[in-house]
Amino acid sequence: MGLIAQLALFSEETDRPEGLQYTAEFISPAEERELIAHVSALPLQPFQFGAHQGKRRVASFGFRYDYTLRRLQQADPIPGWLEAVIGKVETHGGPSTRIAQVLCTEYEVGVGIGWHRDKPQFGRIFGLSLGASCKFRFRRPAGEKWQRYTLAAAPRSLYMMSGASRQIWEHSIPAVEAKRYSITFRTMTDRKS
Ligand SMILES: O=C(O)CCC(=O)C(=O)O
Ligand SMILES: [Fe+2]
């Protein structure tokens, strides 16, 4: 590979995936504490995908993706304590942003999430980080190699995945070093969102 090609590849590797947005301090420390109290009080269940069980613990509202049936199922209705933050996310997402699904997740120290793209039934993905930061990693094939990008997602920050960052790039989180909670807000693709 020539020098120019290497430099081009290097600059691509440091570029943020198209459609990925990051907002630091999306909520206040007081709002963060309140949300952590609610999420940690939920009857969180080990993430279930088919016969496998993930180490992270989750609770879904609105809809949940059933990995055995391979389709969306109705889940518990979205609880009232999530309304204010959902409103804030919808305002942030702009007109016609309707959050239909919420996933609350707990990552104990040493727990992460493997490479994946979220299910195609979902539209845009918003993620609020609580309690601790994580490395939010992205990759997509680039010839024989992977093009990579890492977002440092700080507590109280919100990321939004749309466009290529949502449809083409995969994401994962390596084992966290301190207990992290997240709240993932998803729109549906069959709506204009
Ligand atoms: O914890 C997060 O911020 C992301 C979790 C995730 O990627 C997912 O549940 O699909
Ligand atoms: Fe995801």
Unreliable runs: none
CATH topology tier name? Jelly Rolls
The best one-word shape is: globular
- Give the full name of the CATH homologous superfamily: Alpha-ketoglutarate-dependent dioxygenase AlkB-like
Bound molecules: 2-oxoglutaric acid, fe (ii) ion
Strand content: 35-45%
Please give the domain count: 1
Query: What kind of sheet is the major sheet?
Result: 7 strands, antiparallel
Instruction: Find the count of extended strands (DSSP E, 2+ residues).
Output: 13
Q: What distance lies between the first and last C-alpha atoms, to the nearest angstrom?
A: 42 Å
- Number of helical regions: 4
Rounded Rg: 17 Å
Please report the first level of CATH classification, the CATH class.
Mainly Beta
Alpha-beta content class: alpha+beta
Helix content: 10-25%
Identify the strand order in the major beta sheet: 1-11-8-13-6-3-2
Description:
By secondary structure, the protein is of the alpha+beta class. 20% of the residues lie in helices and 42% in strands. The radius of gyration is 17 Å and the shape is globular. It has helices spanning 3-13, 29-40, 83-93, 163-167; strands spanning 20-23, 45-49, 52-61, 63-66, 71-74, 101-107, 113-116, 122-130, 134-142, 145-153, 158-161, 170-173, 180-188. The chain is built from four helices and 13 strands. The mean pLDDT is 91. A seven-stranded antiparallel sheet has the order 1-11-8-13-6-3-2. A four-stranded antiparallel sheet has the order 7-12-9-10. A two-stranded antiparallel sheet has the order 4-5. It has a single domain (3-188), classed as Alpha-ketoglutarate-dependent dioxygenase AlkB-like (Jelly Rolls). Bound molecules: 2-oxoglutaric acid and fe (ii) ion (FE2). The site of fe (ii) ion has 3 residues, from loops.
